[in-house]
Amino acid sequence: MPVRVQQEDFDAGIEIDRLRRAAAHVGAIAAFIGTVRDQNLVSGEYASVTGITLEHYPGMTESALEEVRVQAHERWDLIDTLIVHRYGELKPQDQIVLVVATSSHRADAFAACEFMMDYLKTRAPFWKKETTSEGSRWVVALASDDESAARWEKPN
Questions:
Q1: Domain ranges of the chain
Q2: Would you say 73 and 109 are in contact if contact means Cβ atoms under 8 Å apart?
Q3: Three state DSSP letters for 5-36
Q4: pLDDT at residue 68 tops 80
Q5: What are the residues facing 42 on neighbouring strands?
């Protein structure tokens, strides 16, 4: 399945190799792995992060991620894509997300991978609660994340 939302960790090497071996005409693979940082900006200052909790609505989340994956295939000449996103309680250095795009040429793979990640950072139906040295707080997308995602908007 090209979209998975799961609690358990993933092996990026195995996932990428599976996509690479699935089609002999794969000439490019772009991948992004997001991990939990041990610090984050809180009120303009860095605070130590001891963990995060990711919540989602089963069914709705998978559908939303599948839709962005389909959009990537409509925009670029791709062979395959994969989105794996974790939920539950995670600690610093834990993997959160894997996004992979394969194509015959690198430009399409890079663009699709970046497009899918920008969507995940700003619009995917996940709720992230971060526990820091300053207490717990819900995390919202940064203005810079919204700016990155806005470049993919199609003009009306």
A1: 3-150
A2: no
A3: EECCCCCHHHHHHHHHHHCCCCCEEEEEEEEC
A4: yes
A5: 45
With contact defined as beta carbons under 8 Å apart, do 146 and 122 qualify? yes
Q: What dotted CATH number matches 3-150?
A: 3.90.1170.40
Quote the CA–CA distance of 48 and 5 in Å, as a whole number.
27
Could you tell me the two tokens for 22?
A: 């699935």
pLDDT tens figures, 80-100: 999 999 999 999 999 999 999
Cα-based torsion angle of the residue sequence 65, 69, 70, 72 in order, rounded to the nearest 10 degrees:
140
- 3-class secondary-structure state, position 111: helix
Model pTM score? 0.90
Mean pLDDT (whole number) for 143-149: 63
Q: Residue 21 — pLDDT band, cuts 50, 70, 90? A: very high
| pLDDT of the residue at 133 | 76
- Across 87-121, b (16+ Cβ under 10 Å) vs e yields beebeeeebbbbbbbbbeeeebbebbbbbbbbbbb
35's tokens: 């991990």
Structural tokens at position 74: 């409509």
